[in-house]
Amino acid sequence: MIIRTLTPEDFQQVIELGNLVHGEGYLDMPSLENIYQMGIKNNINAHFIAENEQLSSVHQAQEQSKIAGFRLTYAAGNWPIDKWCTPQKWPVSPDQMCYFKCNTVAQELRGQGIGSQLLQASIKAVKAQGATAGVSHLWKQSPKNSAVGYFTHAGGKLIKEHPSRWNQQQDNSDYLCVICGDDCHCTACEMVIEFN
């Protein structure tokens, strides 16, 4: 598996994988372009993709996705703190806190440590940007609660649970949850990792 920084040339494949895993409307080109800008600070890119090197040449020939997963991360100070965040419970000040937007791995490749490798690559990048901790909203209803499990294994600590975090009425989105459809009531676990 090759872990490398995300580039604009990868956007279409990232959108397709994100919508397949998380639900239609999860990502589109304007939202991903905005997310991309929020992850760059001091000329350091905090977004990463995982490429399956064994499939790369085959997929290139077939013009299919070779992206096995991706990690989108906002640099500290580059993202809006909204009502779903609890900064008074964070161990560091908001200007030192990056935001782990999402970690996505193709279903057939889960359980191989790809998500953890992507997270570690992003942590290294945001530390170089100046962050001392990172916060994320983990999808509690992910298969076998794997999102919370891997983040906990990486050192994440639960700050607060937010029921119905991704409900379409809350953010006026066209997002279709893969579990709930157009009326999402999944819970987001706000979790923080402090960097060593």
From TrEMBL:
InterPro entries (UniProt xref): Acyl_CoA_acyltransferase, GNAT_dom
Designated name of the protein: N-acetyltransferase
Origin species: Shewanella japonica
Bilayer-spanning residue ranges: none
Gene3D superfamilies listed in its UniProt record: 3.40.630.30
Domain N-acetyltransferase: 1-172
CDD domains: NAT_SF
Entries under Pfam families matching the protein: Acetyltransf_1 (PF00583)
